[in-house]
Amino acid sequence: MSSRIATYLREDFSFSQAPPVTDWCEQNIVLPAKMAPASSGPFSVRRRPFMRSILECGHPQSGVRSLTLTAGSQVGKTTCCILILAYRIPHSPMPTLILGNSEDWLRVEMSEKRLGALIEENHALRIHKPFDPAKFRKLAMEMSGGFIVFEGINSDTSTSGSTQGIVYVCEAAKVIQHQRDQAPEAHPIKLAFERTKEFRGLELQLMDFTPNTPNHIAWQTYERGTQTHFHVPCPHCGHHFPFEFEVKKTASDDEDLEDILEAEQERASSDSYRSLIWSPDARRVDGSWDVEKVRASVRYVCPKNGCLITDESKPAMIDAYQEVHHNLNAPLSDRSFRIPSFYAPKVTFGDMAKEFLEKGDLITTGLQNYYNSWLALPWSVLAYNVSEKHITALRGVYARRILPTRPRMLVLTADPGEKATHWSVCAIMPDMSVLYIDWGSLISERDLISAAFLSSLRYYIAGTTEFVIPQVGYIDTGWATEECYDICEKSGGFFWPVKGNDAAVGTWNETRAASRPNLKLYTYSDTQLKDEFYGRRIQRKKGPPIVIPVDADFDLMQGLSGQQKDRQTGKWKRIANDHYGDCGKYAVLASQIARASGFL
Question: What are the chain's domains?
Answer without folding.
Answer: 3-227 (3.40.50.300), 233-323+348-379 (no CATH), 389-596 (3.30.420.240)
